[in-house]
Amino acid sequence: MKFSVIGADKQSGKDVKFMLEAKDQAAAEQDAAARGVMVGSVTAVREPESDAIALVDEPAPVAVEGAAASGLSSHGTITLSANSPQETAHSADGHAKAAEQPAAMEYHIVMNQALYLLEVAVNKYIKDGWEPQGGLTIGSSNNALQYFQALVRKRK
After folding, report:
1. Which one of 2, 24, 94, 129 is least enclosed by Cβ atoms within 10 Å?
2. What is the pLDDT of residues 38-84, one digit of tens each?
3. Residue 89 and residue 107 in one domain
4. 123 and 89 in a common domain
């Protein structure tokens, strides 16, 4: 059975998302922990029926930043390094290009489903010169709580 795992790399604190095969959810959590991941959530992935027609082409697996040491990879159409303040995000066609003149200030929102993992990430951003903007925001999506923190930093 396939499981989608969302968490953070224990060494770097960076968000990771990947899929793995396991006999049940508990085994998937143990496997992820053995790979050096602090698990935020583990969700069973429904296998497509063999005679079903795919409406969307799946892209090739993409390496997840911060997970190279543990050999993890991610599937799906996501923006890589979406939580990266270093402007290293990579997106598909159709996104607006960055303005020629850089802004005097950067704005970033950190999101996680586990409050502890959000705290770890926000503390890392604070060490990198970011300042929390406003309080913690809590939202719900698919019956799961999500925690958000806005951050700002003056451009150098």
Report:
1. 94
2. 888 888 887 655 555 555 444 444 444 444 444 444 444 445 555 55
3. no
4. no
Number of domains forming the structure of the chain:
2
Structural domain containing residue 117: 102-156
Distance CA 24, CA 11 (A): 26
Same domain for 142 and 126: yes
**Alpha carbon distance 126, 97 (integer Å):** 27
Asked if residues 43 and 18 have their Cβ atoms less than 8 Å apart, the reply is no
The amino acid that residue 121 corresponds to is A
Residue 111 backbone dihedrals phi, psi, to 5 degrees: -130, 140
Nearest-5° Cα angle at 102, 129 to 78: 75
Distance CA 115, CA 99 (A): 34
DSSP 46: P
Q: Write the CA distances from 102 to 3, 27, 59, 86, 156, integer angstroms.
A: 40, 47, 32, 13, 10
Question: Do 153 and 137 belong to one domain?
Answer: yes
Contact 86, 106 (CB under 8 A): no
Q: How far is CA 98 from CA 1, 58, 71, 103, 150, in A?
A: 41, 27, 32, 10, 20
